[in-house]
Write a structure and sequence with these properties.
345 residues, alpha+beta, Membrane-bound Lytic Murein Transglycosylase D, Chain A, Elongation Factor Tu (Ef-tu), domain 3, Thrombin, subunit H, 3 domains, 6-stranded antiparallel beta barrel, 6-stranded antiparallel β-barrel, 17% helix
């Protein structure tokens, strides 16, 4: 139930990311402002077109889709169909009509808008995410053995680690990350192409003291089975708060992996794409999952349509890859599925 609430919050944030806060007590006292309107679809309308028309941004369409659950396919909306929209224009008109009597309130709105915090959500597992590196990473140390010579460990177990080079760079009381040995990640459409290496976080440890050539440590968290030979690196904790933002205009790519090697992803799944910071990808950006479908115009003519069927938000980005969270999907998303920036539609 708690997870469902978080996802409703994320979708709500996507919906309102481009909408300023107009509501004040002064205005509410003078007029009952309706925050939504019912729009009747006309011939040629699309969700991204309506998003541009009403909210000045086509990438806002996932929010419209999320709010109108009767729309099963965002690519197909029909003349006469009713869609609920946030009535940004109506609110603007009301404020314009009443600006003489509520000028003070309008000025306050402008101040609040300037100081307004960007829409965000909290992803609590952000520091447990795996990542994909183009090259193998040289660890700072490895787990050498357990205090009682065991080979598998969990939280509170004490272990010995062996530094690769300079033991002095390890600080007593400092927190470090434990990673499993890397897994090769290959292109889902061409297994001869190596994309990089996936590193899965197994847990964290704290350095207790130095004992000869070894360092004694205690495991403070375990997320996966921890064993002799696991890799030790610095632990860079990042904020779990993710601020929503539009994706890179014109960007397109594909989903290369589900984090646990599943063949399909659904809502709340975490996966990776083949674009990263080198392409302008950053945390919080929203992208659209699409498929190409051939449609017959007549017996002789066919066209290829781009059909959107889901969306995801970027959780963390490296140079050439990025981790994402699926926030909306009409159906299962196969590994290898394409994604685009909503502006491309």
């Amino acid at each position: 139930m708690k997870k469902d609430s978080i996802f409703k919050l994320i979708l709500a944030l996507i919906i309102f990311i481009t909408i300023p806060a107009f509501c004040t007590k002064s205005i509410a006292a003078e007029s009952k402002l309706q925050t939504t309107i019912t729009y009747t679809v006309k011939k040629g309308d699309t969700l991204w077109g309506l998003s541009q028309k009403f909210f000045d941004s086509p990438w806002y369409w996932p929010g419209l889709w999320a709010e109108n659950t009767e729309i099963t396919n965002p690519h197909w909306i029909y003349p006469g169909q009713k869609i609920t929209l946030y009535n940004k224009k109506a609110l603007s008109d009301i404020i314009e009509q009443k600006k003489t009597s509520v000028s003070g309130a309008v000025n306050q709105i402008k101040k609040e808008k300037t100081a307004e915090k960007k829409p965000s959500f909290v992803f609590k597992k952000i520091n447990k995410l795996p990542f994909i590196s183009q090259r193998k990473i040289k660890p700072e140390a490895i787990i050498k053995e357990g205090i009682s010579n065991q080979e598998m460990f969990s939280t509170t177990d004490e272990i010995y680690i062996l530094a690769n080079n300079n033991q002095d760079k390890f600080l007593i009381g400092e927190k470090y990350a434990i990673y499993k040995r890397p897994i090769k990640v290959k292109d889902p459409h061409n297994k001869k192409i190596l994309i990089g290496y996936q590193y899965n976080l197994a847990g964290t440890l704290e350095i207790l003291k130095k004992e000869g050539k070894l360092l004694k440590a205690v495991i403070t968290n375990s997320y996966r089975p921890i064993s002799v030979g696991d890799l030790i690196t610095g632990f860079n904790e990042i904020s779990p708060e993710i601020f929503l933002a539009p994706g890179v205009a014109g960007l397109k790519g594909k989903i290369i992996k589900e984090k646990e090697n599943a063949l399909f992803l659904g809502e709340k799944s975490v996966g990776f794409i083949n674009s990263g910071t080198a392409d302008g990808v950053q945390r919080g950006q929203v992208y659209t999952i699409v498929k190409e479908q051939e449609i017959k115009l007549d017996k002789k003519n066919k066209v290829k349509e781009i059909i959107p069927f889901g969306s995801f938000v970027i959780l963390d980005a490296k140079e050439k890859t990025a981790a994402f969270l699926v926030v909306k999907s009409e159906k299962q998303v196969p590994v290898g599925a394409k994604f685009i920036s909503p502006e491309k539609m």
